[in-house]
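Tutorial handout. Part one gives the primary structure; part two gives the three-dimensional structure as tokens.
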Amino acid sequence: MQRMMQRLQQDRAAGRGSLMPFLTAGSPSIEATVATIVTLDGLGVAAIEIGFPFSDPIADGPVIAASMDRALRSGTTVAAIVDAIRDVRPRVGCGLIAMVSMSIVHRHGGAEFIAALHDAGFDALIVPDMDVDDADLITQAVEQRGMGLALLVAPTSSPERIRAITRRCRGFVYALARAGLTGASDAPPDVEGTVPAIRAETELPIAVGFGISTPAHVRMVIQHADAAIVGSALVRAMDGEPDSAHERAQAFIGPMLEACRVTAR
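Part two.
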């Protein structure tokens, strides 16, 4: 987790917000995923979320759901993703975050699976469908290995719910910019109420995702939060020829990083 925290701190010291792009592992290919990780790390992102394809995604909109379906159809497996991260980890310095369904965690051994993720080079986990009341065992497993764990806080979460969620988070908190499914959106992110409510309960960095798809959205987010998460819009930009997916990712993320340089916090 120190890799991710170091980059977050470096960005803050430089007076800018951080960027955490999301990739669907295996879309458009596992080789493209590895090349894109290296490319985005070179651009200076704080962390990269690696989505493990799942046949029944819980909170993902049509773009990410379709990318996961393509990845699964092309033969992307959990083992292949773990091997790819083990291979690329020595070449990158940013944080690598596994976004993975609770079903996958259970199916692959719970704490043993988390240990395998750690050994491969993952720094943190996001388990979007994990109930906060079931989080303690996962929290213990990540704590044993010095990993981060981010649970999701919705705009509709009560102060009591926020308190219960944030006390189980390690490293950072994931704040939703809107309720519903992931997906690029023209609507501005809803952060002015959610982020202060989270800050009232924790000193952990706050990353905001769901619907963040333009540099303007990024600027809005980092006026209040520590990092912006860009997912569906990047996944859509990468769709196409696998060999050049990392180049399309670079062209898309460049303006997002420029937007991080302006912060009013």
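Part three, for discussion. The two ends are 24 Å apart (CA to CA). The CA atoms of residues 74 and 208 lie 31 Å apart.
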